[in-house]
Amino acid sequence: MAVEVKSFILPSFAYEFHAVLGQYLNYQTFMEIQEPDRTLYLAVARNIYDKFFVDEATQLIVDKFKINLIIFDTQTKMVETWILK
């Protein structure tokens, strides 16, 4: 398993999501070649997930590109949900 943690602190979620998506797809592509047994996850805070990742357009992209997610609580630093696509 490999985890890419993103905080989404820029004012524009769309702008940052585009950058994160490109980075995730690059990592995913190279991991498929170099370490095919590992699974890549994008880790995001619960508040970010609840605000942006439930959006229909964002979900469409997450589903289309099979972005695996880990949703965590920023206070406890505990994983709340694993979503494997």
Structural features, described:
This protein has three helices and four strands, in the order βαβααββ. The chain is α/β, with parallel strands linked by helices and 85 residues long. It has one domain: Trna Endonuclease, Chain: A, domain 1, CATH 3.40.1350. It starts with a strand and ends with a strand. The mean pLDDT is 92.
Detail the topology: elements first, then pairings.
Elements: E1 2-5, H1 13-34, E2 40-45, H2 46-53, H3 56-64, E3 69-72, E4 79-83
Parallel strand pairs: 1-2, 2-3
Antiparallel strand pairs: 3-4
> Helices and strands: which structural class?
alpha/beta
Number of domains: 1
Based on the structure given, which CATH architecture is correct?
3-Layer(aba) Sandwich
Distance N terminus to C terminus? 14 Å
Our Rg estimate from Cα atoms comes to 13 Å
Proportion of strand residues: 15-25%
CATH top level class name:
Alpha Beta
Described by strand count, sense and barrel closure, the largest sheet is:
4 strands, mixed
- Could you estimate the helical fraction of the residues in percent? 40-55%
Q: Uncertain runs with pLDDT below 50, 5 residues or more? A: none
Global shape = globular
Number of strands: 4
Neighbour order of strands in the largest sheet = 1-2-3-4
Individual helix count: 3
CATH fold topology? Trna Endonuclease, Chain: A, domain 1
SSE order? EHEHHEE
Mean pLDDT: 92
